[in-house]
Design brief:
Layout lengths: L10 H11 L1 E11 L2 E12 L2 H8 L9
Antiparallel strand pairs: 1-2
Length: about 70
C-alpha cells in the first residue's frame, strides 16, 4: 500500500488543491530613507474557487451552499 504523502504531485494537482481550499496572503511593504516613508504598499491576494469564495462570504451560489 502506497502512502499518499510519498506519491509525486503534479503542479496542476497542487494548484487544484490550493484553489479548492482557498489561499489568502497579505502583507505590507514600506520603503523609507532616513526615517521618511517614501512608498507604502498594502497587498491582499486571494486565490480560491467560486464555490469556496461563496462559502467564505456565507452567500449561496444557485441557491445552495455546500
Amino acid at each position: 500500500m502506497t502512502d499518499v504523502r510519498d506519491a509525486p504531485t503534479s503542479l496542476v494537482e497542487a494548484l487544484d488543491r490550493l484553489i479548492d481550499r482557498g489561499v489568502y496572503a497579505g502583507g505590507d511593504l514600506v520603503i523609507s530613507i532616513a526615517g521618511v516613508e517614501l512608498i507604502a504598499v498594502a497587498l491582499d491576494v486571494v486565490l480560491a474557487s467560486v464555490e469556496q469564495a461563496a462559502r467564505w462570504r456565507g452567500r449561496p451560489i444557485d441557491g445552495q451552499l455546500s
